[in-house]
Amino acid sequence: MGLSRHPVLAAFFVLAGLGVLAFLLGLPHWGDAHSEEPGLRIAERAEDVTFPVQIAVARTGNLVKRLPTSGILRANREVEIRSRIAGSLTGVPAFNGKFVRSADRLVAIDDREYRVAFERARANLLNAQIEFRSLSATPFLTPVDSMETLRRIEKESRTLDSLTQLRLSGVIDDDTFERKSRETEAALAYLTANRGDVIAGRSGLAQAREAFETAKLNLEATRILAPFQGYVADCLLANGMQVNAGQILLKMLDLSTILVDVEILESEIGRVAVGQKAHVRVAGLPEMEFEGSVRTLNPLVDAKAKTMKATIALVGRSRTGQSPGSILRPGMFASALVETQSLPHRLLIPREAVLVRDQRPLVFTVEGLLAKWRYVETGEGNEECVEIRSGLSPGDTVIVDGHYTLAHDAKVSVPTRNP
C-alpha cells in the first residue's frame, strides 16, 4: 500500500519533515546568540566579589617563649584535723566551706570524764610534792663531801678505761668485761646523779607530774581549735557522734595562696627556673587567666615518667579582679604557660596569618582593597605570634582570618573599627 493512495497521510509526513529541518537549521543560530552571554555575566560577577577578612598589624616587640604544661591545684596548706582522744561530740560549730580564724573552735568533745581525771591527777601531784619536801629533810639527802665524790668519780672512770684496754689486749674476755663495766658504770651513775632527781623518783613526784600533764592535755583535747585561718572541708560530723582517738574529723584549707604542681619534661628542665612568670587557666573557668610564678623546683626526676615537679604560686588577681583563692578550688585541673625566654625587638604577626603554599610560608597583606600574596621568612614563635625575618615591615597589615581561599589581587573588605 503506497502513500499515493492516502494523500492526507503523505501531507502530514512532508510537513513534519519540513519542521524538523527548520529546527535543525535554526539551532546553530540560536546557540550563537546565547552561548557567550551567561559566561560574560559570571565573569562580571566574579570580578565584583568581595571577601570579608580580619586583619592585624605587624609590630615590633618582645617575643616571649613559653613552655606549656599542666597540673593540679592545691591549697597553700592543707591539714587533717584528728581527734587525740575518744569521746562523744557535744558541739560541732564547723561545717563545710566555713571560714574560721586561728584558734576558733571547730569541734567539742564531752569533757566530763577527762575533767575528773585531771582533778585526780592534780591531787596526786600535790601529795607527791608534799612527800618530796618530807624526803628532802631526811639524812639520806645530806650532801656528801664534794672533793671525796670527785675522787671517787675519777677512780671509777680510770677503772672503766683500764677495763677497756684489758679487753682490747685480750687479757680479759668479753663476758668479764661486760660484767665489770656494768658495775663501774652503775657506780658512776650513782655518784653523778642529780640528788633532786633521785628524791623526785623516790617520792613519786616525777610520775605524778607526768600523769598531771597527760590529764591536762587530754582535757584540752576536748576542745579542737583551728590551727590557722582558713576554710573547713570534708566535715561530716554531728552532735552525739562517737569518735575515736586518731580519727580524722575534718580538713583545714589555707587558700591565701593557690599552688599548682606541674610536670616538666626531662628534656625541658634546663628552661625552667625559680621566679619565672607563669599564666594559668583552669578547665572549669576557661575565660579567666591567672598570673603566677615558679616557687619551687623538686630536685628529683621521676625515673619512670621522666619528669620533674615544679610548683607555681598564683600571686595575682584575674583580669576580672578576683583573687585566686575566692574562685579556684584545690583539685582542679589547670594548664600553665611558663615564660622561659624573652627575645627583644622582633617583628611579630599573629600565628594565624601564616599560610604554607608549595612548602613555603606566606601571608596576605591588604593594599587598598586588594589582597597581596607575599612570601616571608619566619623565625622563632610562640603559641600566639611568629617572628618575621624578611618579607614584611612594621605597620604592614596582614590578614588573619578569611584568607585560606584568597587569590592574589582578590578584593577584600575589612570591618571598620569602633573609634
- What percent strand? 35-45%
Domain count: the total is 5
Give a short account of the largest sheet. 6 strands, antiparallel, barrel
Uncertain stretches of 5 or more adjacent residues: 1-6, 20-46
Mean of residue pLDDT values: 85
How many helix segments?
Answer: 8
Strands, total number: 21
Which structural class fits the helix and strand makeup? alpha+beta
Helices and strands, in order, run as HHEEEEEEHHHHHEEEEEEEHEEEEEEEE
Question: What portion of residues is helical?
Answer: 25-40%
Overall geometry: elongated
Gyration radius, in Å: 47 Å
Strand order in the sheet with the most strands: 3-10-13-12-11-14
Query: Could you give the distance between the termini?
Result: 94 Å
Description:
By secondary structure, the chain is α+β, with helices and mostly antiparallel strands. The protein has five domains: about 5-45; about 50-65 and about 345-415, Beta Barrel (conserved putative lor/sdh protein from methanococcus maripaludis s2 fold); about 65-75 and about 255-345, Elongation Factor Tu (Ef-tu), domain 3 (Beta Barrel), CATH 2.40.30; about 85-110 and about 225-245, RNA polymerase II/Efflux pump adaptor protein, barrel-sandwich hybrid domain (OB fold (Dihydrolipoamide Acetyltransferase, E2P), Beta Barrel); about 115-215, no CATH class. The protein contains eight helices and 21 strands. α4 packs antiparallel against α5 (about 175-190). The longest helix is centred in the N-terminal third of the chain and has 28 residues, at about 5-35. The protein is elongated and about 125 Å long.
